[in-house]
Amino acid sequence: MSKSTFLGAMALTALLGSSAYAQDNFEVWHYYAAGSELAGMNALIDYSNSQAKDAKFTGVVVPGNVVELRRQLQTAFLGGRPPAAYQSSMAFELKAFVDGGRLHPIPDVWEQIKGDEIFPAGVQRVVKIGGQPYGVPFDLSLINNVFYNVKLFKELGLEVPTDWDSFAKACSALSKAGYQPLGNAGGTFWSLYNFYSPLVSIVGEEGYYKIARGELGFDSPEFSKALDLYRDKMIPCYAKNWSGKTWTQTADDVVNGSTGMFMMGAWVAAYFEQAGFKGGEGFDLFQAPGTVGKSVFQMDVLAVPAGPEATIAAANQFLVAAASPEGQAAFAVPKGSLAPNVKVDASVYNYAGAKLAKQFSDASAKDAVLPNLFFLLPTALGTELGNQIQRFAIDPSDATKAEVISTLEGLRQEALANKAFIAW
Amino acid sequence: MIPREWIPTRTTRTHLAFLALPVALFATFYVYPIISSVYLSMHSWDGFSPDMRWVGLQNYKTLLAQPRFFNAVLNNIAWVAFMLIVPTGIGLMLAAILDRGIRGESVYRIIFFLPFTIPAVAVAAIWRWMYEPTNGLITTVLDLAGLGWAAQNWLGDPAVVNASLMGAVAWWTTGFAFLVFFAGLRNIPTECIEAARIEGATSWQIFWKVSFPLLWPSTIIVLGMSAIDAMRLFDIVWAMTQGGPAYSSEVLATQMYDLAFGRFEMGRASAVSVYLLLIAAVVIMPYILYMSSRVQDSEAE
């Protein structure tokens, strides 16, 4: 073989190889690395692959969480090789990448899937930036429920709490009987998710959105009252040494019966089920005081980076399949979350899922759906809010309260000066 | 016409050829990132937008006004002190004990060194469970020993968390100091030890007056590596506490990571990295200069 023939063959092989890669191997990046989360994502990808005509997708796990995924995405964007689609949080997480010119709007997909009909209004508003949809919701979890150990409640004859007074009574009874009343865990998110309950109690839904829009200050009397309510009613209930535990360690405490209640996202129900702790028998759940009839939720979406037309066309096929009732159920059932698509039949859920789906449906009908404030705020402010609330939960003194308020208000003023807030 | 003496000789050309690759690698992967970080630190940038906004020294000024930043600096300094004293001291002690010819020496050598071979994330996972405050191994052992009062909220109490992390790191890194010191002790000429023994020196005097001074090259390596490890500390802290609770265990590297990827503040994160470079230079450069002079003295002798 002559040198020129050999080089020509090599070039042709490389060309065919890259062409085949572009057609067949589109990547979907996500951070669901194990257990029920990975099972859900794999099921979703399998379903989408069965529906897509001329594109196949491979899931690529970025170990860690949303922060690790951002790091990978930043590098990929700078290198010009982003994935075809990726798992993203909602609201400001999307806005940051839209402002950076890195996301592709999906109005055609939205129209095709009838997004305005299949997703509740509260869900729609956190995937649209400037009126344009940028993500397809696929993974929704309520974060305003308290999970409790049924056996302990029966043993002590406790009623399921419905307001702050009955909640305090349950805490007191559990504590007197030698149990840890309310579990919590260390980290930026968990104390903040608990705090939404007293916050909504004081400021209501409108006040919640006012904070998200930067209109209600952290130095306002309302926010101060919410901190006081959190300090008076929830923090004293927390289990001893809660801040040194992970959420799974605290979930284990509920399973083994040393802790009575645990306010955590709905994913803890899947963890309980995996541990053989069955919904309705081992554990049950109720909406946290102040949020009865409302749903505070955390949600992930599938976003499409700006890129070559062929990649976007393939990603659009993936999104259409992921938005369908079958695609949504394929993910939600193994993962233990809710399908944002209201067309998904409620019979696919287990005990806890069915209860949560009913809550979400009822709240959606009343437009009492509140997206996670962490992601409604500008990213730096949302993250700081999580850190400061955790700090206050560890040391709820007046001095800490003053520092929390001062720190957050300083950041709010900075965000206002930069016109960083938007109206969701 | 180029003067004849300016034309490199064949030997010089060979030297230049051999130097080209390492210099290119050093410039690409060391000098360029530093220059790039300094450049980024003077901009406001989220890490993925096409445009950056020039802010001059604003990021540096903002950091200097934040208690969070100073807390991270103090934590780094505490880590330097800890790494220079604790793993190094324990490693030296273990090496000295094992050098006395204990039965099963090879088994102990493996046991002492084994933790150092475990990746940081795995160490973090192990110690997260060890430090579980209710049912973790440490709390359980303390309870069984009747020392339950000493059990702490190991990773959840801001006053305790740094000591807990240091405990895990001591377990993890002591093996390195041990191995270097043990190799150093084994390389000390036996005549020196025998001579001291004949002169009537006690075991302690032999160690302190003979062995330890002769361990100087090993000490240079261990202390130098420990100081550098302390300044660039990231993985174990991030994997165990992510700098929490409420920033109490944060070091500069974890703060840099949080700002860059947790908050989209790449410019401010770069300013932290420049401060880290300067602080590391202030802390470590005198040591390196001192050690360089000692090496030169040794060569002169």
Radius of gyration of chain A: 23 Å
| CATH-derived topology of the domain at 82-232 in chain B | MetI-like fold
According to CATH, the fold-level topology of the largest domain in chain A is: D-Maltodextrin-Binding Protein, domain 2
- What distance lies between the first and last C-alpha atoms of chain B, to the nearest angstrom? 47 Å
User: Helicity level of chain A, as a percent range?
Assistant: 40-55%
Question: Judging from the principal axes of the Cα atoms, what is the shape of chain A?
Answer: globular
Write down the CATH class of the domain at 82-232 in chain B. Mainly Alpha
Considering the chains and any ligands shown, give keywords for the structure:
heterodimer, A: 424 residues, alpha/beta, D-Maltodextrin-Binding Protein, domain 2, 2 domains, six-stranded mixed sheet, four-stranded mixed sheet, 19 helices, B: 301 residues, mainly alpha, MetI-like fold, two-stranded antiparallel ribbon, 13 helices, flat
What does this structure look like?
The complex is a heterodimer of chains A (424) and B (301). With 424 residues, chain A is α/β, with parallel strands linked by helices. Chain A is built from 19 helices and 12 strands. In chain A, the strands form 3 sheets. In chain A, strands 1, 2, 3, 6, 11 and 12 form a 6-stranded mixed beta sheet that branches. Chain A has a 4-stranded mixed beta sheet with strand order 8-9-7-10. Chain A has a two-stranded antiparallel ribbon with strand order 4-5. In chain A, helix 2 (35-51) packs across helix 14 (309-323), helix 2 packs antiparallel against helix 15 and helix 10 crosses helix 18. The N and C termini of chain A lie far apart (66 Å). The model of chain A is unreliable at 12-23 (pLDDT under 50). Among the domains of chain B are: 82-232, MetI-like fold, CATH 1.10.3720.10; 251-301, no CATH class. Chain B contains 13 helices and 2 strands; from the N terminus they run αββαααααααααααα. Chain B has helices at 10-41, 58-64, 67-98, 105-113, 120-130, 137-144, 161-186, 190-198, 203-214, 216-231, 235-240, 252-262, 266-300, and strands at residues 43-44, 53-54. A two-stranded antiparallel sheet of chain B has the order 1-2. In chain B, helix 2 packs across helix 13 (266-300), helix 8 (190-198) runs antiparallel to helix 9 and helix 12 runs antiparallel to helix 13 (266-300).
